[in-house]
């Protein structure tokens, strides 16, 4: 039954891609139907699961035997694991996915390739569901690559734009580095445990030597960094904003980029076994959340600013996942709430762009609240959620992460607190520049509210962004729900929870006020004279420069070295054989003079030798 | 005539003492012919030397109880083949003689060395191959009633298939030779009118040249003709005479006389009179 | 008389013919040399026929003559064709087929 959740969007994508233009008319409708069907089946499964007692909730369904190498004792089933963790993801993916399908109906209505767009969206949903439903790492890897492919196709959807094509390529290459880590991890699992299924690895890890968990942990962290745009593989996410905005909302904010967090939480037993790997995860999360926030605070491009925010928020999740059992649940909680409020903000940004002739420069917005009521309200709800104002969703998830981080160490706590302040700053900046301040529109721009197909998903999502936190954390419901899968330990922060909440809210308030003060007047063109930090942040904190210096140049050097080796040694050997043969034959062929008498001479000489030989033998 | 020939053949076969004489004379002549072919510069001479060798070999066939082959040798080789050679030689050019300079480096030295080694080795090898006295062919001949009948019996009996195959070979060879030597005409045959036009198209003077001795006291071939104005016409002398340097100089008196005559006749017009 | 003498004679004429092929540049003369070698072989056949008292050797010599006649016809035609195109009967001139 659960397989149909994946099969519906997969078949729809296959149908739309093979039928081509013939499916132009019914394509978007079919895609939305497939996605909705997936969501309904997922919801039904969820209700069934919730009705069962806690021990029987996790179910593994073997669809068919996929790979079997009896000689090596290797067996991988195409099996789907439906437990509390994966059903949470299924609901998030299919729900947000369906809403964004509907949103795209309005947003992409003028695009002649919209059928292809919907096919890719369905492909993405199918791959993402496969990723979270897989019961072993190899099947997860299939989904992992599938979402990478869908991401590549959708970033480069407007491939006639060179920037989009390059961004797609960049995302693919950066993801490949992470995928490399995942594939190495899977190979290591097979070598050490002889199996790649979650249950076998979880059982085997407790008895395995320390280096196994450390190696696996670091490799999986590398994979997570690639997929979730964490330091040092973060640079692709900002460029990925070249894709259509619904894609940015669904793939590069709500779901795909959180796959790294899912991977870490799913591999909880591995990280629990290695403190060094956990610390590495926390450090990476802390660096990313600060970097993302700083970049988000400096960008004038609304989508890039949101992308920096996404990177920062995922940094929160990764950091939480690195904290161990005290953080896993909150990482997932924040993931789900973030999926809602970030999606609503991206959709709001898309709506704003839709209204301003696809302009992304916030310095040319301003005062849009007067003309775009729904967009403004929903965006504002998302804003309140992300900066963590109670009772909006972000408050509950982020506050718990801050508590857990503080109970882990003072520096992790400091990082998340500072990050909360930065978040408040850049989000306030965004709201002020876009909706509140005086209009700075281009001359030919006449902003208007978007159609219902676009505002409806935003409204639905904003309701989630407003209420999810209070619903899920009511009576520790979500902690209890996930505890059988990830384990849960109540965090023990050094201060009381009330103190922490007050500290957090004051930090947030400082951020908000600073932004309001800073942006009381906004220039239409970004000022040139800025501090070093802003200049660096505008250049993505030199992410590309670092990539170039650390990876591209050494890679080029290595390639050049290999090239020289290939040309001198390998080619030298091969060419040497060739030129030796050539030289010998060049000399030998001189005997072919073309003179028939020379040839006759060789015959006569041969005859003479034969006769002499006969003579000698005869005598 | 044919009877005499057969008699000779019979005598040579039967008389032991007669054979060595014939062998040494004819064998010696054959070798001389062969060496002559090798060293003559002119191809025609070579052909004649080869003919000598072949006739002598024919005699040696007859001596060795093969009168039919002897006759065939004379008819086919000296008659047909050598005539064909001479015929082609005439087409190719009789005077085409080999230059004495060897073009391939070392060819002559190595060839002579190889030849000497071959001769010595063959002589040593063959010299003692038959220590027995020759068997008599007479029995084999008489079984069929003679040499020619014997060979005929073999050709049309035992070897009839090969014989038929050789006929195919000969026909193929004849057709092949025709194909090879045939020259395809690429343009239509020229008519006399076309040839005449071509002759004059080049702009050369093709009329009769002035004959030697005209307007002169002499009409001998070696005296150049004088043109009406008294000047000497160079083209009136035949080439070989000029080449030999035996042209006669023209007497100045003759020139004056010619000028006087032509002026009196009004043949040489002055500039003033022009075209009148 | 010992028939080996004929064989020796045959060998000498054969060698001279071979030398002719090697040394003479005129294609026609080289061809004559080949004929000479064939004749030398014929002499050996006839001698063998006489020694063994069988007519087969003579028959073989007859076939050799037939083949030689065919060969001469074709060979001379080839020489003629070459002479027409290259205006030369030298075997050294026709040396295009080389390195």
Task: Outline the structure in words.
- The complex is a heterotrimer of chains A (619), B (276) and C (99).
- Chain A has helices spanning 2-19, 27-51, 84-107, 114-133, 137-155, 162-193, 198-207, 210-228, 235-239, 245-254, 259-266, 268-272, 275-298, 302-322, 328-355, 373-387, 393-408, 410-436, 452-473, 477-486, 497-518, 532-538, 543-588, 596-618; strands at residues 59-69, 74-82.
- Chain A has 619 residues and is mainly alpha-helical.
- Chain A has a domain at 547-618.
- In chain A, a hairpin with a 4-residue loop joins strand 1 and strand 2 (74-82).
- In chain A, helix 15 packs antiparallel against helix 16 (373-387).
- With 276 residues, chain B is mainly α.
- Helix content of chain B is 62%, strand content 1%.
- Chain B has 11 helices and 2 strands.
- Chain B has helices at residues 2-14, 18-39, 43-63, 67-92, 107-127, 138-144, 147-156, 160-181, 192-201, 239-244, 252-265; strands at residues 225-226, 232-233.
- Chain B has a two-stranded antiparallel sheet.
- Chain C is elongated and about 50 Å long.
- The interface between A and C is medium-sized, with 12 and 14 residues.
Key terms:
heterotrimer; B: 276 residues; 11 helices; 62% helix; 1% strand; disordered C terminus; C: mainly alpha; 3 helices; 0% strand
What's the layout of helices and strands?
The complex is a heterotrimer of chains A (619), B (276) and C (99).
Chain A: H1 2-19, H2 27-51, E1 59-69, E2 74-82, H3 84-107, H4 114-133, H5 137-155, H6 162-193, H7 198-207, H8 210-228, H9 235-239, H10 245-254, H11 259-266, H12 268-272, H13 275-298, H14 302-322, H15 328-355, H16 373-387, H17 393-408, H18 410-436, H19 452-473, H20 477-486, H21 497-518, H22 532-538, H23 543-588, H24 596-618
Antiparallel strand pairs in A: 1-2
Chain B: H1 2-14, H2 18-39, H3 43-63, H4 67-92, H5 107-127, H6 138-144, H7 147-156, H8 160-181, H9 192-201, E1 225-226, E2 232-233, H10 239-244, H11 252-265
Antiparallel strand pairs in B: 1-2
Chain C: H1 4-23, H2 27-52, H3 56-86
